[in-house]
Design a protein that fits this description.
CATH architecture: Orthogonal Bundle
Structural class: mainly alpha
Shape: elongated
Distance between the termini: 46 Å
Number of helices: 5
Radius of gyration: 16 Å
Number of domains: 1
CATH class: Mainly Alpha
Strand order of the largest sheet: 1-3-2
Order of helices and strands: HHEHHEEH
Largest sheet: 3 strands, antiparallel
Length: 112
């Protein structure tokens, strides 16, 4: 299991990182529960294409278990994977906070 392996396969744009963050947060709160792609789509609000591509990479990288017959995913983490996920979540949260702060400063300076 390795989140870093999954991150290497995914694009590093803000949208993909946001989708990945929401998926990891959802599965982290429902550890050991089988979740369908439709359920993940409904709970996160992202498109099926976004959800499917990230879930496929996560299952190929052994971050999530995948049941091929029922097309469901589940998260059964360990300490090392949990640490990787925490680092990723903090990095994405810090980046989003930094971007929001910069946008707010820009608006103040330029009167938007």
């Amino acid at each position: 299991m390795s989140l870093s392996r999954a991150l290497e396969k995914l694009s590093s744009d803000d949208h993909t990182e946001c989708v990945l963050r929401e998926i990891l947060a959802l599965f982290g709160s429902r550890e050991r529960e089988w979740l369908s792609e439709d359920y993940v789509e409904a709970k996160t609000g992202f498109s099926f294409a976004d959800i499917h591509s990230v879930l496929s990479v996560l299952s190929d990288s052994f971050v999530l278990d995948f049941d091929r017959t029922e097309r469901r995913y589940r998260f059964v983490g360990d300490v090392a994977l949990g640490y990787e996920i925490d680092l990723f979540m903090r990095r994405v949260d810090n980046h989003q906070s930094h971007v929001r702060t910069n946008v707010a400063r820009f608006r103040e300076r330029h009167g938007y």
